[in-house]
UniProtKB/TrEMBL annotation, chains A, B:
The keyword Oxidoreductase applies. The lineage of its organism: Bacteria, Bacillati, Actinomycetota, Actinomycetes, Kitasatosporales. One of its GO terms (molecular function) is oxidoreductase activity, acting on paired donors, with incorporation or reduction of molecular oxygen. This is Nitrilotriacetate monooxygenase. It comes from Streptomyces resistomycificus. CDD domains: Nitrilotriacetate_monoxgenase.
Length: 446, 446
């Protein structure tokens, strides 16, 4: 079931790292949020490690309390990827844009322009947006899910239709014949949906990979149908191998239902490693990174996960024997079993939390070999086609992952030694596509 | 009335140059449309010449027949300016975006991000868009003018409100105090208009110039009111000095009516020079650049301008004495008088056209000194505060203007010898502004 080698993407959001306290790490550049030179350095490190892609998650809203935390999102993902396009050569450049709050013509134009500027390395993570505060930034509310996804299908199809509206051989550049292009091959698409429409054409020639690659994030029946029809890459957040295998099976089934080959679509599982010379050092690093976090709230949350009324007073104590006897992992949270497992090892509650048991991705805090072992185990169990790495701090974490973990994975034959080619499509193993996918029913035309 | 020295901007659209046949010029890079390296080279040339700004005009539509002509617009202006931001240091980076077909939150975010990435050199030419084919790319029609401009006011105010929503001293970066920022100073704006709204805040710190500078293009009472209230720079297309003086007076009056100082706002007059070692060589260059143009149509157009039934048969003949006696310049077209003046010099009709008498900007086809003379004459007559240079071909035209015309203007004291400072605001002589302009009535809040 698994592909032979894993696909790796580095998450790259906010500016400092996946850990809330990354901005405070000694030696880190405090101004990273607005410092393009830093981002270039990180991207170049990832490229040195032959990482297939960078991914900037995005929601058009300030969704974090900046009093203590750095922003979750970049100042603008498309502009930052444009900067990186010029200062890297092989790594894929993927970001999120909302199908609900961006006009398809603008989406089509900016992503295809990025694809041209990067010589065929752009990817669009098409999401519908679910945060009402994001909607309010557009003077709107979040539409009902069915309507939101109906629009998403229309928008993706319009965008892909526009991408194909400058036919591959339309550009003539015939100086003697005075023919710049063949206008018969640059024609309106006239796509008219219920929620969105565009006439076209979009006057942008094909990139080296034709057009950007589509990604999708998050499951649910609506999300799966979207992924099944359009995506080449899918971001998922499974907490356990079983969870991941079930998500991957559901995804592959959705791809088959859309009449496509499941091997065309790669599921990347979110993963948050902290890499240090020892497990103790890794925990210490995470404890520092957690200093900006409200641990009182977290310890209560941990208690709810394992069925115990825990409070801040116990932060620097382990669970008592009585507590361990009473604990019951919540059946509703797939992280609970691991949380209890770590608690049983006798760590203080602060350290249990430092293991990342309640984080939004599986965490390994340990050595490079620990990190590689975890990835190997998941990959070989068919849990995913690769990982979306949320490194705790970009400042030294990109280098640590690339210089310490990647060589282990390569040595074990789990990760490629070099890029397969110059485009994201090649490095991801995605199918060729220009314009709409002819295997899908064509959308309505006006 | 005139500022002491002129402001110069280079127009930078489409990829090849202002002349329709620029893409065919021997030695020019045929792939310029998609070649960022070229654009960087041109921008760096302009910066060598201390040009205050680059301007990418834009309409989100393919509005040219690509069979013979290159596109009028760039693949994406904001992404291209982002590339240039990284590879230049002082030159201002201005582009158009539509107040009608882009959401204000997206506009605010991308322009302020460009402003941060360029260290305070971004400008937004806020236009309402009038091409129905552009509207069709958004599944829409062009709203009635009053409504379109009502929305434009709202959108500009929302954008500026969002720009100011991260207060200047909100960013703390206090490692020991664990304070990333002061959230009391990063607050929603809750701007609610009739046509557009946004909650905010926009989580982007100030750039070196605070926020982007606003430009406006095109007159009319609606356009003037927009310029009067918000703009620091205005693009105008006068054909004659009288025309220009009248436009400049109308602009300055509109600025005063809005309670602002007219010297805050610079009117840049469009101007199309062709620079060559002699007038004959310049005409020859323009004849080559015109080879892709439908001269039969142009010669009829010329006839209409000077009240004569002209046809293609006469292309290589001058006007006869009888024709010259009968000719009457059209009172409706300010270019007509000059067209007849050139025809009286005895040029063939092909050469009359090569003088640019029916182009959309005043043309000088001649030596660098001819070009500088024209600019001096206009500037000293109070016709404008500077020029928006539409050079015929970027390939060699940026260098020609910078290396030949700029030194003459500098020698005559008409143009600065170096940038006044690192930001566009400083180099344009624009007023300081962060957030909404407190001199204007504040917009409604929800
Ligand atoms: C791994 C992962 C990454 C995601 N990235 C984004 C993102 O960048 N931006 C966003 O708005 N939503 C993101 N989402 C959210 C989903 O796209 C989706 O909105 C969410 O699952 C809620 O689904 P709904 O839209 O059906 O309510 C992500 C979800 C997952 C699991
Ligand atoms: C010098 C100049 C530059 C302009 N640049 C643009 C541009 O880049 N994009 C655009 O859509 N319109 C541009 N316009 C058009 C005006 O913004 C305006 O739309 C036009 O004058 C019609 O006005 P209306 O919107 O009131 O109908 C320009 C006009 C002038 C005079």
């Amino acid at each position: 079931m698994t592909s032979r080698q894993m696909i790796l993407g580095m998450q790259f959001s906010g500016g400092y790292g996946a850990a809330p306290g990354a901005w405070r790490l000694p030696g880190a550049n405090l101004n990273s949020y607005t410092d393009m030179d830093q981002f270039v350095r990180y991207a170049q490190a990832a490229e040195r490690g032959k990482i297939q892609l960078l991914f900037i998650a995005d929601t058009p809203v300030l969704d974090v309390d900046l009093d203590h935390h750095a922003p979750h999102h970049m100042i603008d993902p498309l502009l930052i990827l444009t900067v990186l396009a010029r200062e890297t050569e092989r790594i894929g450049l993927v970001t999120t844009a909302s199908t609900t709050f961006t006009e398809p013509y603008n989406l089509a134009r900016q992503f295809k322009a990025l694809d041209v500027i990067s010589n065929g390395r752009a990817g669009w993570n098409a999401v519908t947006t679910s945060d009402p505060a994001a909607a309010a930034n557009f003077g709107a509310t979040i539409p009902p899910r069915a309507e939101k996804y109906e629009r998403a299908h229309e928008v993706i199809q319009i965008v892909q239709g526009l991408w194909g509206s400058w036919e591959k051989d339309a550009w003539l550049l015939d100086v003697d014949g005075k023919r710049f292009a063949d206008m018969d091959k640059i024609q309106p698409v006239n796509l008219q949906g219920k929620h969105a429409a565009s006439r076209g054409p979009l006057p942008i020639p094909p990139s080296e990979q034709g057009q950007p690659v589509i990604f999708q994030a998050g499951g649910g029946s609506y999300g799966l149908e979207l992924a099944g029809r359009y995506a080449s890459g899918v971001y998922a957040n499974p907490y356990t191998i079983e969870d991941a295998r079930a998500q991957r099976k559901a995804l592959r089934d959705a791809v088959k239902r859309a009449g496509r080959d499941p091997d065309e679509v790669k599921m990347l599982a979110g993963f948050m490693p902290t890499i240090a010379p020892s497990r103790q050092a890794a925990l210490e690093r995470r404890r520092f990174l957690d200093e900006v976090v409200d641990l009182n709230q977290r310890v209560r949350y941990l208690g709810a996960m394992i069925g115990l009324p825990l409070g801040p007073a116990q932060l620097d104590e382990p669970l008592t024997a009585d507590q361990l006897a009473d604990a019951i992992p919540s059946p509703h949270d797939p992280r609970s079993a691991r949380a209890l497992e770590v608690a049983r090892e006798g760590w203080t509650l602060r350290d249990v939390l430092a293991h990342g048991v309640i984080d939004y991705h599986p965490v390994v805090a340990g050595t490079a070999a620990d990190v590689a072992d975890h990835m190997q185990q998941w990959f070989e169990a068919g849990a995913c086609d690769g990982f979306s790495i949320a490194i705790d701090s970009y400042h030294d974490g990109f280098d640590a992952f690339v210089d310490q973990v990647v060589p282990i994975l390569q040595e074990r034959g789990l990760f490629h030694d070099d890029y397969e080619g110059p485009t994201l499509r090649e490095n991801l193993g995605a199918h060729e596509q220009y314009g709409l996918d002819p295997r899908l029913t064509r959308p309505a035309r006006s």
